[in-house]
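Morning, I've got a small favour to ask if you have a moment. It would help a lot if you went through both lines with me. I owe you a coffee for this, so here goes:
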Amino acid sequence: MDKKLGGLLVVFFLLFMVFASVVLFNNQLSSITRAKEDVTPSAKASLLFAYPLLLKADGTTKSTISVFVRSDKGTVVKSQKIVFTTSLGQLNTSEAMTDAKGQATTTLTSTTPGISVIGAIIGDSLKIAQPLSITFQ
């Protein structure tokens, strides 16, 4: 019986020490034990969306364009400068910064009917691989 009690006490104190070290030193241990997060933007993994894709060419109807910047591993990349490009129409803003979710947004209007090809550049030179088209009628 004494050996069982001694063994239980050893296990209890070991678990208590692990618990205490996690509670007290969590931030310090996490910087040592966690792998460095990948924060390099990827042109292939980043996404470019717009809605709606078909709208009136009246100068007031807007399409919202969003970029989601991701790394090759799919993690969010924040605080990146995005430059929006268009072949037709007027962008609300041509530059934006990604937020904590890796998202940057602008709007597009046009008074000229036609197809507008939208692109986005991350930073100074990383062009998002897949452009999109918005049709103005």
Notes: The chain has two domains: 1-34, 47-136.
